[in-house]
Amino acid sequence: MPLADFLTTDLGVFLDDPFAVSATAGDTTAKVILDQPGEVLANGMVLSTDYTATAKTSDFGSLLRGDAITVDSVNYTVREVRPIDDGLLVEISLQKT
Amino acid sequence: MTTKRESILADIATSLAGTVQVGSRIYRSRVEAIARAESPAIVIEPISDEPEYSLRLDRLDWRLSVRISVIVRSSLPDQAADPIVDDIHSKITADNTLGGYALDIEPSTVGFEIIEADQPAGVISMNYLIKYRTTVTDLSAG
């Protein structure tokens, strides 16, 4: 199988152990990669954490602002969902509930 | 000796003690960012101070620009900050002499910055022009 076909049909390799964690939104439970770097905003006035989950679009691409999602047993609320690259994966910006 | 400028800034910080929702999170010229768990908070900082000769030539009339920033976290940051802003303004204008150091206080621009963060954040900047007088040779007297 060509590499491109492999990557397209088996996106799970991007979201596999040991870096992935389990996420649940509604009836869907699937693996995501959670990043949580700190960031300084508002000309240095506000310290925030940029919680971002990378997931398959087919799993969590339909989430909307305000939807609830649990990532690695922690409750979050969706801020926004952005397709990345070819749109098969999404980045989900989160805020801790 | 302490300059009148410093005395004014210290008096502002003292007078804001007990501001609603803020508790002890009132900071002078804090340079570190405010974390979510530290909000709401107030930061007091001088912006500029401009002198001009008074009609009495042995005196300087100063215009000290002070910014009081209210940092809040809420889905509606400006609304969440409103009672804090109201309380700050009442406390600042309750004594136009700021403990006897100032001649007058003039409210100036209020700025609003609403930011996407791990919980929406707001920075409401309340600016005041504070007029005070010193002698030409001594910033603590006059």
Structure in a nutshell:
The complex is a heterodimer of chains A (97) and B (142). Chain A is mainly beta and 97 residues long. Helix content of chain A is 11%, strand content 52%.
Please characterize this protein's 3D structure.
The complex is a heterodimer of chains A (97) and B (142). Chain A is built from two helices and eight strands; from the N terminus they run H-E-E-E-E-E-H-E-E-E. Chain A has helices spanning 3-9, 57-60, and strands at 21-25, 28-35, 38-41, 46-49, 51-56, 68-71, 74-84, 89-96. In chain A, the strands form two sheets. In chain A, strands 1-2-5-8-7-6 form a six-stranded antiparallel beta barrel. Chain A is globular, with a radius of gyration of 14 Å. Chain B has helices spanning 4-15, 77-93, and strands spanning 26-28, 41-53, 59-73, 104-115, 121-135. Chain B is elongated, with a radius of gyration of 16 Å. The longest helix of chain B is centred in the middle third of the chain and has 17 residues, at 77-93. Chain B is an alpha+beta fold and 142 residues long. Helices cover 20% and strands 41% of the residues of chain B. The mean pLDDT of chain B is 95. Chains A and B meet through strand 4 and strand 8 of A and loops of B.
Task: Provide the descriptors you would attach to this structure in a database record.
heterodimer; A: 97 residues; mainly beta; globular; B: 142 residues; five-stranded mixed sheet
Major sheet attributes of chain B:
5 strands, mixed
Strand order of the biggest β-sheet of chain B = 1-2-3-5-4
Percent range of helical residues of chain B: 10-25%
Largest interface: A-B, 16 and 18 residues
Cα radius of gyration of chain B in angstroms: 16 Å
What would you call the structural class of chain B? Answer: alpha+beta
Q: How many E-type strands of chain A? A: 8
Please list the strands of the largest sheet of chain A in the order they lie side by side.
1-2-5-8-7-6
Low-confidence stretches of chain A: none
Q: If you average the pLDDT of chain B, what whole number results?
A: 95
Q: Low-confidence stretches of chain B at least 5 residues in length (pLDDT < 50)? A: none
> What is the first-to-last residue Cα distance of chain A?
43 Å
